[in-house]
């Protein structure tokens, strides 16, 4: 065999490699689809539990649905909302939410500072602060309802002993005191989580910043005002926004204590919606009120998501 007629290797090697690559791509496509198949049951469950009730609520809000009958009324339910005492209920809702969130942030910030300080028994205090959040809300609120009782409640008894009141006082029987009682109970329930959230933010601050400020002669108040507060400000805003969402949508605290009374002084939007739809069987009007609550919560959620996106961009 001459040099010009050397034996050449088989030609289809490149085609075989291409075939292998194509087969690999097909296998990757099959493998990549597997996680999405696993999501199908959860997606169906979400559609059944969340999407369908939401769609049904929107549909009912355009009807006068009651027990045994239902007819289309257009936007009449939404018009009636604004003609009733809606604005007073909304004002009360935002007042209740504003007082509760403000007090929870203040109490939580004080608690976080104390938990972060080098004080004896700090670990025990971290454990003792959690029961209001861990205990089921119904149990905790029932405990407060007994404490508010004028005949055998602890608060009325202590107030009489210290001469603040002359006789038994039913805190839940009067509008202003009942409203403040629900705020105090809500603050008691929500403060521990706020305190631990802010404590985690404080402990993420580099100690070198405090050491440098201490070396320069900065006092504790100056370090707190110039270092701690600015660095935990995003966390304060985040937990305040989350607390606002939870407080706005809170039902159990008010319902267990007062059921929205006396004379509607503790009726918030969520309580009004429940009474309209469940107690009075006016499902169409109740659905319209629920849609209004959804709009408010969506606005809160939009602000929260925008804050999270901004925080992530800042971290990068």
TrEMBL record:
It comes from the Bacteria. Its main location: membrane. This is Carbohydrate ABC transporter membrane protein 1, CUT1 family. Residues 90-304 form the ABC transmembrane type-1 domain. Keywords: Cell membrane, Membrane, Transmembrane, Transmembrane helix, Transport. CDD domains: TM_PBP2. The keyword RNA-binding does not apply. The keyword Transport applies. The chain crosses the membrane at residues 34-55, 94-115, 127-147, 171-199, 227-248, 287-307. The lineage of its organism: Bacteria, Pseudomonadati, Pseudomonadota, Alphaproteobacteria, Rhodobacterales. It is a multi-pass membrane protein. Pfam families: BPD_transp_1. One of its GO terms (biological process) is transmembrane transport. Gene3D superfamilies: MetI-like. It is found in: Cell membrane. GO terms for cellular component: plasma membrane. Belongs to the binding-protein-dependent transport system permease family.
């Amino acid at each position: 065999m001459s040099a010009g007629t050397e034996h050449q290797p088989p030609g289809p090697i490149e085609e075989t490699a291409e075939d292998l690559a194509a087969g690999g791509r097909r296998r990757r496509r099959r493998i990549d689809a597997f996680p999405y198949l696993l999501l199908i049951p959860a997606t169906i469950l979400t559609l059944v539990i969340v999407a369908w009730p939401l769609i049904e609520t929107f549909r009912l809000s355009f009807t006068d649905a009651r027990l045994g009958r239902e007819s289309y009324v257009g936007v009449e339910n939404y018009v009636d909302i604004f003609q009733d005492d809606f604005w007073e209920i909304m004002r009360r809702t935002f007042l209740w939410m504003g007082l509760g969130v403000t007090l929870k942030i203040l109490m939580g910030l004080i608690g976080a500072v104390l938990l972060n300080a080098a004080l004896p028994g700090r670990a025990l205090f971290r454990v003792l602060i959690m029961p209001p959040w861990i205990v089921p809300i119904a149990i905790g609120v029932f405990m407060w309802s007994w404490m508010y009782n004028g005949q055998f409640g602890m608060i009325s008894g202590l107030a009489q002993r210290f001469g603040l009141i002359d006789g038994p006082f039913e805190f839940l029987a009067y509008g202003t005191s009942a409203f403040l009682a629900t705020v105090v109970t809500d603050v008691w329930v929500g403060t521990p989580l706020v305190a631990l959230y802010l404590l985690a933010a404080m402990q993420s601050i580099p100690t070198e910043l405090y050491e440098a400020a201490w070396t320069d002669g900065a006092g504790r108040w100056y370090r707190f005002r110039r270092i701690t507060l600015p660095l935990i400000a995003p966390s304060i805003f985040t937990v305040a926004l989350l607390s606002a969402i939870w407080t706005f949508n809170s039902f159990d605290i008010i319902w267990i204590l007062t059921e929205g009374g006396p004379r509607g002084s503790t009726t918030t939007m969520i309580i009004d919606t429940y009474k309209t739809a469940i107690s009075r069987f006016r499902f169409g009007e109740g659905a319209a009120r629920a849609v209004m609550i959804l709009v408010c919560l969506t606005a809160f959620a939009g602000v929260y998501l925008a804050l999270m996106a901004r925080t992530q961009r800042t971290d990068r």
